[in-house]
Amino acid sequence: MPDAQPEPQSVPQPPAGAGAALAAASSAALSPATLAVVAGRPPRTPDAEVNVGVSLTSTYVGSASTGAGGRGYGRFGNPTWEAFEEALGALEGGSALTFASGMGAVSAVLGLLPAGASLLVPHGAYNGTHALAGLLRQRGVLGDVVGVDITDPGDVREALAAAGAGALLWLESPTNPLLEVADLRALTELGHAAGALVAVDNTFATPLLQRPLDLGADVVVHSVTKFLAGHSDVVLGAVVVRDAELRTRLLQQRTLHGAIPGPLEVFLALRGLRTLHLRLERSQASAAELARRLAGHRAVRRVRHPSLPSDPGHELAARQMGGFGAIVSVEVAGGAAAADAVVDAVRLWLPATSLGGVESLIERRRRHPSEPAVVPEDLLRLSVGVEDVEDLWRDLDAALSSAL
Ligand SMILES: *Cc1c(COP(=O)(O)O)cnc(C)c1O
């Protein structure tokens, strides 16, 4: 362990990865599908490796005169992290930092707030975000925690006015699991006009479908566990920003709170990211097809997916997003018991929490006591994977019919 913690101002900045220049130079010219493949590679020199490897080291050789190199110590930086951060940064159009989990990333962002500041959070935000906000409120770290309806700019404007300057407006779009769509540009403008910092949890959309920094947001948060890594084999998070000072403060959070990711997890996430565009293309096409069929199923009360013309978020999502995403929520006729019966009856869909992997998952969200009460008891969240859509439909149709 190093003798002293780095001074806040001197938390070491990891050296820009070898491919940083490439990513920066090409992010304007190359499409996201290409960036997902090429960003974060070692330099193209004879005999260079094609992938940055799993860098297993707790410390780095420093210079005798200054006592430290650029990285210094394993908690400050790691070449495998830097490769992933370069790729995600290129995709989101900012500078990325990886964290040990999505919640580690959420935690670091909430840690930017001065003591007593207010947090505005969507009624239907991820339940972990709600739970953490509640904990910080209880301890007096946060002032007010105010639920907002992100589909209603008027409601957000009022809450911002009441919160005063220095608040954090937390956005998530589409939300987990109600799939509400927020007008990110409009709400970000409202937030900034009120002197608030604006963060967007972009886990459901991924940078391939929307880039919140381009829409004005200050901070983007990811549960990398989900679509970015994409294979249900790691838990990981990330934060992406453009502002250098914000980045320094977030790096300080990571270094001093110590919620650092393991290099193997980050390697797997980068490998998963290489095929994000292919996985998402297949998953969201299947999701839209399943949503369309489910809307006509007699065992279904309501389907939520922004691809459906009847969905309240359809028009906005069509304008704001490059696709409608791979999560579908279904409210089952017959209530919670019928929904549980569907989960018990599926044979191909995997009854499990989480989402965004290659395998399709199904879950009744209110089985978690921490799930916000705005989520209906009979709601099943479907994470559509990359299996054949007809196989997925037959299994779902049979399970729904058996639960009638
Ligand atoms: C899963 C999830 C998180 C939390 O991420 P972990 O990787 O599980 O810590 C945050 N936000 C959203 C939208 C999520 O789906």
UniProtKB/TrEMBL annotation:
Alphabetized GO MF terms: cystathionine gamma-lyase activity; homocysteine desulfhydrase activity; methionine gamma-lyase activity; pyridoxal phosphate binding
InterPro entries membership: Cys/Met-Metab_PyrdxlP-dep_enz, PyrdxlP-dep_Trfase, PyrdxlP-dep_Trfase_major, PyrdxlP-dep_Trfase_small
Enzyme class: lyase
Pfam families recorded: Cys_Met_Meta_PP (PF01053)
Documented EC number(s): 4.4.1.2
Modification N6-(pyridoxal phosphate)lysine, positions: K226
One GO location term (cellular component): cytoplasm
Any one GO biological process: transsulfuration
UniProt cross-references to SUPFAM superfamilies, sorted A to Z: PLP-dependent transferases
Keywords recorded for this protein, A-Z: Pyridoxal phosphate
Catalytic activity: L-homocysteine + H2O = 2-oxobutanoate + hydrogen sulfide + NH4(+) + H(+); L-methionine + H2O = methanethiol + 2-oxobutanoate + NH4(+)
Cofactor: pyridoxal 5'-phosphate
UniProt entry tagged with the keyword Mitochondrion: no
Domain of life: Bacteria
Family from the record: Belongs to the trans-sulfuration enzymes family.
PANTHER family cross-referenced by the UniProt entry: CYSTATHIONINE GAMMA-LYASE, TRANS-SULFURATION ENZYME FAMILY MEMBER
Protein name, UniProt field: homocysteine desulfhydrase
Protein species of origin: Kineococcus xinjiangensis
